[in-house]
Design a protein that fits this description.
- The protein is of the alpha+beta class.
- It has one domain (3-254).
- The protein has 8 helices and 8 strands; from the N terminus they run H-E-H-E-H-H-E-H-E-E-E-H-E-E-H-H.
- A hairpin with a 2-residue loop joins strand 7 (196-205) and strand 8 (208-215).
- The longest helix is centred in the N-terminal third of the chain and has 30 residues, at 67-96.
- The chain is globular and about 55 Å long.
- Bound molecules: iron/sulfur cluster (2 copies).
Length: 281
């Protein structure tokens, strides 16, 4: 089994994106977020992604359908069915080659602990990986200023899963910081609720970190512009389809920054925005 075979098989199983990081790129993390806490023999971290269809954002962009378009095909089914099936099939294939593979979902998680350590020295279960960091370490893209993980293929339009394996695979290079985003600020200017505070923090692997704007998740949780919170995902606000996320898509497509191209522009009409009670602004 080698990296080229893993990528080819993953794509046959439906993955749009596949990147590989050596475990060393994530081994410095606190044990509560460290892949070695879950699989101490892991040598490689494989991150796979499936695209969020541009068409699944259409109902929200037009303001006429939220659940049947994005909620189903851009979020729930994509994460829990399509991506989960690709992850499971790739895990089965790797194990059929004689290597163990640990499949992990990528729900956003802020570190809430659900139990006590089983033995002194071990982190409390459940350990969750920071999926944006794993995807960055696997060379798939970067976290942009607006807080979205951006790839050169789809911008902010994808969802990821991670597999840890005990086979040493050829790694992909990490993208240099700020190679996609370029800090255009369109997402920040588009927020009707002024959720971005103006402060920033750094995200990325050591030596390759980019500036990411702070935003108030409590404000986003009330946002009625396409933001989502789904049960079982740690109350994280999914902002992909909201005013900020769709503006990022428009900005990156206008710049010609994405390799997934379309005949027609995404934005066709004037932009709608709601205030907190859901009234048009
Ligand atoms: S989810 Fe809504 S409130 Fe939060 S940054 Fe995006 S547009 Fe602003
Ligand atoms: S809208 Fe511009 S600044 Fe914001 S994340 Fe996208 S590319 Fe970066």
């Amino acid at each position: 089994m080698n990296a080229a075979e893993v990528k080819s098989i993953a794509k046959q199983f439906g993955a749009d994106l596949v990147g590989i990081a050596p475990i060393e790129r994530l081994a410095h993390l606190p044990k509560e977020q460290n892949p070695l806490s879950i699989f101490p023999q892991a040598k490689s971290v494989i991150v796979i992604g499936r695209r969020i269809l541009r068409g699944s954002l259409r109902g929200i962009e037009e303001g006429t359908n939220f659940d049947g378009t994005y909620g189903a095909f851009g979020f729930r089914y994509l994460e829990d069915n399509f991506l989960a099936k690709t992850t499971y099939d790739l895990t089965c294939w790797i194990e059929a080659q004689g290597f163990e593979a640990v499949p992990l979902f990528s729900y956003d998680h802020d570190g809430s602990i659900q139990a006590v350590p089983v033995t002194p020295g071990k982190p409390a279960p459940n350990v969750y990986l920071k999926w944006q960091l794993s995807a960055h370490a696997a060379g798939l893209g970067e976290v942009g200023l607006g807080g979205f993980f951006l790839t050169p293929e789809f911008g902010h339009r994808q969802r990821f899963a991670t597999l840890l394996t005990d086979e040493e695979l050829e790694a992909d290079p990490v993208l240099p910081a700020n190679s996609i985003c370029k800090d255009c600020r369109a997402c920040i200017d588009a927020c009707p609720l002024k959720a971005y505070s103006g402060a920033t923090h750094k995200e990325g692997t050591p030596g390759n970190e980019s500036e990411v704007a702070d935003y108030d998740a409590a404000v986003c949780a009330k946002c009625q512009n396409g933001a989502w919170i789904l049960p079982g995902r740690f109350d994280h606000v999914d902002r992909c389809a909201s005013s900020c996320g769709r503006e990022c898509l428009v900005a990156l497509e206008k710049k010609g920054a994405l390799s997934n191209k379309f005949q027609n522009e995404f934005r066709k009409r004037s932009v709608w925005k709601n205030d907190v009670p859901g009234r048009a602004k």
